[in-house]
Amino acid sequence: MLEQIVMGRLRKRMRQLYAGIDTPPILDLEAYFPQAEALQMLYPMLRDEALALYAGAAGIPRFHEISTTQTRISASDGKDWRMVMVKSYGHLIRANAARTPALAGFLAANPQVSTAAYSFLDPGKHIPPHRGPFRGILRYHLCLYAPEPGPWLKVDGVTVPYEEGGALLWDDTFTHEVLNPGSHPRIALLLDVQRPVTRLAQKLAYRGMIRGGGLYSRLTEKRMRVA
């Protein structure tokens, strides 16, 4: 309850500060996150890390077990959405980072990435339509494993299929949903990347959000550790 109240108020203020931004739902990687090229080079190692983690899937927390504010979208249909958080609002989860050296190395060199996680979506799992509250970050997905029939992400009415090795940068304040109709898990790397802005107020707002979220992440880190 405290998490919902504090983060809800903070996010409302953040929405007001970023109200003037007018960019499309899906953004150009080279223009907004050129460092993604390094992730493509790391793809085989990132995939191996994710598959090794999934071998012990029972010890990976469900998203709503990490953050109760995600219960509506994470626990909506009895199928699991598990997350290995390696970085949360700027706070490195050291126990998980030790299991993911390739990703941890990239994060150490790219501080503009505030949150990083390996995401595991059960067969049949549907993440219902929802939207993020904060335009100060951009969401990056790198697909590491896509079963057949293919999973997809729909952003603002545009359906984007997940393809292994495929990457996407998008604004999660637009309505979006995900479905994995396959018989195996969809596995992806998820990053939150600082949006490039010029206004001082927006830069300060981002720092405030990360500072507040980072403090909460430190207090609740135990929930994020892989057993």
UniProtKB/TrEMBL annotation:
SUPFAM superfamilies, per database record: Clavaminate synthase-like
Gene3D superfamilies in alphabetical order: B-lactam Antibiotic, Isopenicillin N Synthase, Chain (2.60.120.330)
Keywords: Dioxygenase, Oxidoreductase
Residue span(s) of domain Aspartyl/asparaginy/proline hydroxylase: 44-196
Gene Ontology molecular function: dioxygenase activity
Pfam families attached to this UniProt entry: Asp_Arg_Hydrox (PF05118)
Record has Oxidoreductase as a keyword: yes
TM segment ranges: none
InterPro entries xrefs: Asp/Arg/Pro-Hydrxlase, Asp/Asn_beta-hydroxylase, IPNS-like_sf
Protein name: Aspartyl/asparaginyl beta-hydroxylase domain-containing protein
